[in-house]
TrEMBL record:
Organism placement in taxonomy: Eukaryota, Sar, Alveolata, Dinophyceae, Suessiales
Protein name (record): CSD domain-containing protein
Keyword terms, alphabetized: Membrane, Phosphoprotein, Transmembrane, Transmembrane helix
Transmembrane feature ranges: 141-166
Family matches, as InterPro entries: Ca-reg_mRNA-binding_domain, CSD, CSD_CS, CSP_DNA-bd, NA-bd_OB-fold
Segments forming domain CSD: 1-67, 76-149
Gene3D superfamilies named in the record: Nucleic acid-binding proteins
Amino acid sequence: MPTGKLKKFVSDKGFGFITPDEGGEDIFAHTLQFVGDGDTLRGGERVTYEAEWDDRKGKYRASTWTVDASGAGAAMLPGVLKKYFTDKGFGFIEPQDGSEDLFAHQRQFSGDPNSIQDGMKVKYEVEWDGKKGKNKAGPDLGVLTMVSAAAAAAMAVVAAVAAAAMACSSQIMANPWVAAHRLFGGKLHFREL
């Protein structure tokens, strides 16, 4: 059974659109054909579906569909934000696998939009853009995860301090002053109280 992602879901009207994982045009999906509790749908869910041609609309629609319980989904792919236009609110991702650059809008990024900058490492999903006829970065919250150089450096410092603390833990019990001296590189200053 084909898989995809439910997007543009209008809960009060009971319909949305499935973006197929294999690409192509979005598929209309109504809760009348949904197998499961339609009240739990919010959009962004991974789904499996069967499609049929709708002669009246001239498009495919889901004849049956359900939430994909297998947990399988589009993989988060690594890349770098190659160029970002702050004034326009969009940029382009250079995929790590060397494939064609992908369009990405600012609203797709998690975190503070003011921190978006060229050269940031990102993780993203790929989605088919029917209007442009090519792939783009997916639209869900959290799809693009920014890892700035400053955040990566801060995580490395925390990891290094934790490792040093663990290495000194056995020495702390024996002689806490020597362990502290080693941990902080000999930069301990004592004041008289």
